[in-house]
Protein: N-dimethylarginine dimethylaminohydrolase
Amino acid sequence: MTSVSLLGGADAAPIVLDATPARVPTTRRYLMCEPRHFTVEYAINPWMDPTRPTDTSLAVAQWTALKETYERLGHQVEVIEPAPGLPDMVFSANSGTVIDGRVLGAKFRAPERAAEADHFRRWFLANGYQDVVMPEITNEAEGDFTWTGKYLLAGTGFRTDPRAHAEAQEVLGVPVISLNLVDPRYYHLDVALFVLTEDLVAYYPDAFSVGSQEVLRRLYPDAILATASDAACLGLNAVSDGRHVVLPVEATALGEQVAARGFEPVYVDISELRASGGGPKCCTMELRG
Structure:
């Protein structure tokens, strides 16, 4: 941690102030889906290769370790039953955005994932959510919608239709800031940026258009900037509770930057699910309110 000394008069003892703020975790509630039917049988992003063998049992073991990590950190994890024939249903973040108890569902761009949305809609209704709106315009939920506590950062360029940003603002009643993604490897906002606290994010600049980079610089002048290698292991597909930051085990440089800002990196191995372009955040929908 960095500290600074402030000197008073000639005979005054130096006052040492810690320049790194204390990081305080808040208890979160998450919705996850076991990858019981996980495989890569189609390709809808650059990470997916149907000719590469996948290990479903390993995916389940890694997902279970992620779930247990959240529980060990004091968070509550709800689980939705996986449906046969939907191998990407494990990526629950793509199926709903929940803020203050309001739910905006998902409408997937790829037909292979379209049926996932209704499974999650039914889960919300069965679990007491009364304000559930299914979108008219394509949006892939927390894949492209990132709530900071102040703004809804909204990605577009590959999956979510830019018109969905206005729909999200109307349904959720929060200010929306549009960001354009330009690198197909980082096809969702949640593989290019994550929120550490309300006023601090980490992101990979080259994933964004020039104008969006300028927007991020203005909003977050002290942001953590990820390296190309940390972005390439989906290190930015991370989850923060305000103190603990759960991120892929390969993202060591990013973890060091996170630790230097007073957070505690918590590494998980989710390499098998990365074969489908997912990481910790993809597997984690936050239920807010």
Summary: The CA atoms of residues 37 and 84 lie 6 Å apart. The two ends are 34 Å apart (CA to CA). The domain at 22-286 is CATH 3.75.10.10 (L-arginine/glycine Amidinotransferase; Chain A). DSSP finds six helices and 17 strands in the chain.
